[in-house]
Structures are given as C-alpha cells and as structure tokens.
Amino acid sequence: MFVGGKFIKEIALEMIGFNLMIAYLDVQALGFSPAIATFTMVSGISISALSLALLAKSRTED
Asked: Model-level pTM greater than 0.85?
C-alpha cells in the first residue's frame, strides 16, 4: 500500500476493505460485542466504497 503507483494503492485499499468485511464473521464467532462486529462491517463497506470511488476517479482522469 505504501509502495507502487496510484492504481496499486487503490487496489490495496480495496483489499483492506474486503478483509474487514470478511473479519465480521470472525469477530462474531469470537464472541465480541455486536457493536464491534457491526463497526467492523461498516468500516469495511466504507473503505471499499471509498477505494472504488478513488479507482473510478483515477481511471477517468487518465
């Protein structure tokens, strides 16, 4: 995420968002608070949406 071109950084951010969405079920299975599990899912969706917007913006600027 810290090295590479603009496209690579946006893809890395997308992977982080998807990893947070996947971790939602793990957080629930570990018995954490439902608020923490929900925060994990919401933050994953937000990061994925942000990275998709940045990716679309960079593709239209080229």
From this structure: no
